[in-house]
Design a protein that fits this description.
Shape: globular
Number of strands: 5
Pfam family, one: DUF885
Order of helices and strands: HHHHHEEHHHHHHHHHEEEHHHHHHHHH
Radius of gyration: 23 Å
Keywords: Signal
Protein name: DUF885 domain-containing protein
Largest sheet: 3 strands, mixed
InterPro entries: DUF885, TAT_signal
């Protein structure tokens, strides 16, 4: 999964988009959306720093977003105004391309309005979370890695780093006050989430200021440039401002622990059922009721389980349930690396080598190809207990670092080699990394507003669909167990729908959901537990993967049936990727009248 603030830069909405006339309805819509985007970049200096390379973008690198209650109110007011202004546009007067722009923005504004009015938060992928801070969210979780990697190419980089580092303490305190407010409304994480939060905050706080990666890494790079003062200043900021703010945050969460409950689902929170239905819509971009979504998960799981059974039997694995046979594969010494630093290094090397191999196969299914500006690293140790199995961070607009696949290597036995290749396809090529590259390369002059939101079903749905494409282009030739890994990965995503809706709609316990995942999907206990805990703090997001994959496959096969011999999968992929992120219903409409090429 891409990280929370990774805004994928969109390309052309349609390859055949006509040039906007000076006074056309399309031109008026474009001007309106451009103004909204400009206002958004003013509200979010972090987005401005990620997306802009001009003076405005450089200035934004010195600041963080406003996390206060007042800042949230300003964001909500802006979203409501944007929604009202967009509703004043005559959609019927727009061209087909203009209607795509309109519908995409309308969905985003609706979600920003409806979710923004409730407790919790919503990130730039329109993923809602009921808890502003969790084991997977909050500035303590997202920002340390950014600080540790801060570039030091120019003198301005050093000052930008120090200014934003000092702002970290303010942001932490703002989030602490928002958490306190939400708690007064009855919104407190369950006990097991609190335990993870407290442990991760405490681990971050326990590192001595002079040894913290947040300060030591940038200080070393600055010293190499001759800017020796950066290190002492960063250490002082950390010791005198950031660490006391972390202490205050830790104390608040510790005060919640005695009255915390164990129920995992958001149904227990104020208007929890309505909150979940909205979160499901925001993540999947479709209006499927939770109980219907649950059945979709069960049906898809059954189909994939039958396919996986056939592949396992072909390898002589016939005894036991599918889940039992998968667990046996996880323990097979042929696929395991030692739980040592050397073993972790071998896993990273394997992933990098497989990425290089699949890169050469991409022309079989794609026209625009990614640069090989990607690497594979370990998830930072300080957050790995609560982090997902892996995530992708695309290269920033200024190209100061490559794209990064971060793999959670807390224990190496979570990544037997038969699973690892599929992970690189999801996070790297032809998944998120290729997705990001096509957005950037297919139409570099596209309006900036097309990078406004990610839409989880599109972004994560593409990455899961890309796992299937990797099979089609031959990534697993002479690797039958890697092929098993690809189907098991899809099976896992179907299981996610079952357990996510189980927890939040059917009121399953955390333990019941974990048990279902282990017994039916063959997931390991440790990774299954971490995944279930993730669904507890990002309700509905786990459903976006399979919903998006199904939508891409349906759109592709409908186009193939309509176009016949004129269908070329490379052109189909170019079209849906060059369009940029959009709700899946918009993607379906966008491809219905496509004539190929």
């Amino acid at each position: 999964m891409p990280n929370r603030r990774q805004l994928l830069v969109g390309a052309a909405a349609l390859a055949a988009t006509p040039a906007f006339g000076a006074a056309s309805p399309d031109a008026e819509l474009s001007a309106l959306l451009a103004r909204h985007m400009d206002e958004y970049l003013t509200l979010s200096p972090q987005a401005a720093a990620d997306l802009l390379t001009d003076a405005r973008g450089r200035a934004a690198r010195h600041r963080l977003d406003d996390r206060s209650l007042e800042g949230k109110a300003r964001d909500l007011a802006a979203a409501r105004r944007w929604r009202k202004e967009l509703a004043g546009v005559n959609r019927a007067a727009l061209s087909p391309a203009g209607q795509v722009e309109y519908d995409t923005a309308a969905f985003a504004y609706e979600m920003l309005d409806e979710v923004g009015a409730r407790y919790g938060f919503q990130d730039h992928a329109l993923r809602p979370g009921p808890y502003l801070i969790s084991q997977m969210s909050g500035d303590y979780y997202w920002l340390p890695e950014d600080y540790a990697r801060a570039p030091m190419a120019e003198r301005e980089d050093a000052q930008a780093y120090l200014d934003r580092f000092a702002a970290f303490a303010t942001a932490l305190d703002q989030e602490t006050e928002r958490v306190r407010f939400d708690a007064s409304q009855g919104v407190i994480p369950p006990d097991f989430v609190l335990d993870r939060i407290i442990a991760q905050l405490s681990a971050l706080r326990a590192v001595p200021a002079e040894r913290s990666d947040m300060a030591a890494g940038p200080a070393a790079r600055a010293a190499a440039k001759g800017w020796a003062e950066v290190g002492p200043k960063a250490t002082a900021i950390l010791a005198n401002q950031i660490q006391p703010a972390l202490d205050r945050q830790i104390a608040l969460f510790q005060s919640f622990r005695a009255k915390a409950v164990h129920e995992a689902g958001v149904w227990r929170l104020p208007e929890g059922e309505a909150w979940y239905a909205l979160a499901l819509k925001s993540n999947t971009t479709v209006s499927t009721p939770p109980f219907e979504m649950h059945q979709l998960g069960l049906d898809t799981f059954a189909t994939l389980s039958a396919e996986l059974d056939s592949l396992l039997r072909a390898q002589g694995m016939t005894q036991g349930s599918v889940g039992e046979r998968i667990r046996a594969l996880d323990k097979d010494p042929r696929f395991l690396k030692p739980d040592t630093d050397a073993g972790r290094a071998e896993l990273l090397t394997y992933a990098r080598d497989h990425l290089a191999h699949v890169h050469d196969l991409l022309p079989r299914a794609f026209r625009t190809l990614p640069d090989r500006d990607i690497t594979v690293d370990r998830v930072p140790v300080a957050i790995e207990a609560g982090a997902p199995g892996a995530y992708y961070s695309g290269p920033p607009a200024d190209g100061s670092r490559p794209g990064v696949i971060a793999i959670n290597l807390k224990t190496t036995d979570e990544w037997p080699l038969w699973r690892l290749a599929t992970l690189t396809h999801h996070e790297g090529d032809p998944g998120h990394h290729l997705q990001h590259a096509v957005f950037r390369k297919a139409a570099p002059d596209a309006p900036l507003y097309r990078s406004f939101a990610q839409y989880s079903a599109y972004v994560e749905g593409w990455a899961l669909y890309a796992e299937h494409v990797a099979v089609e282009i031959g990534a697993y030739e002479n690797d039958p167990f890697g092929r098993i890994g690809a189907v098991q990965s899809a099976l896992f995503r179907a299981a996610r729908i079952v357990v996510d809706t189980g927890i939040h709609a059917k009121r399953w316990s955390r333990e019941e959901a974990t048990r279902w995942m282990v017994e039916n999907a063959g997931e390991q206990q440790t990774s299954a537990q971490r995944e279930i805990d993730r669904y507890c703090v990002y309700p509905g997001q786990a459903c976006a993967f399979m919903v998006g994959r199904i939508a891409f496959l349906k759109a592709r096969e409908a186009a193939r049936a309509r176009l016949g011999a004129r269908f070329d999968v490379r052109d189909f992929h170019e079209r849906v990727l060059a369009a940029g992120p959009a709700p899946m219903q918009v993607v379906a409409r966008m491809t219905q009248d496509w004539q190929g090429g």
